[in-house]
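Message: I would value a second opinion on how I read folds in token form. Give me a protein, with the fold worked out from its sequence. Write it directly below this note and I will take it from there.
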Amino acid sequence: MNSPVSGNGWEVHIADCLLWLERFPGVVDAVITDPPYSSGGAMRGDRTNQNVNTKYRTSGAPALPDFTGDNRDQRSFAHWCALWLASARIRTRTGGHLLMFTDWRQLPSATDAVQAGGWVWRGLGVWQKPKGASRPTKGGLWNDTEFLVWATNGPHKPAPEAPCLDGVFVSASPRNKVHLTEKPLEILDALVQIVPEGATVFDPFAGSGTTGIAAYRRHRSFIGVELDTAMAATAAHRLRNAERGAPVNTETAAMTLWQA
């Protein structure tokens, strides 16, 4: 096992999640994650030949660090997801939860992979983006939604005090984000409440650490794995900001004022 960057109830490992999971001796309560979609284009060439900034960056926005693993077609995406989903399920307690982001192109592959990995598919959540923060489709449906696949490791037996989470989350993408596919903190803040305080949330694709920040603020433990060294450092930095009560947004002042 590599030595993680850690703080008060959180840790971030720099590793490939499949290799890391093989050596992880513990058990987690929920897997909440946003894997690379291998999507973002109408044609196969868009997915396999374009870099991620070309695929995902909105017009006029600054370029952000590239990330790897986003060039699989639907079949290889499903096979790859089934591998890490199976390994993550083995290390999730019975009855533990999976919440996995995906988009409409990969939704069929994602739900197949979840079930191939041994999870019990329980339903879908919807992330709806406001009209001013999403893409219209002339002559068709407005492209304003991404999805959350919800599953459990075996039977779903919620405690009497368990919350009933929303099925639709309305939120724009974060402003001044540091990761191209960074998800809104307010959505993750709601999602981590699927497990009780003190439970452990695991994110095998930690990115800039948004899931970890939400878990920390909601008094859940967090384990994150991130392949990119620089992005893992960003995640750890934002988590340290959360510990200190400093801003965790990605504005320059917030990213430099609280350097460890």
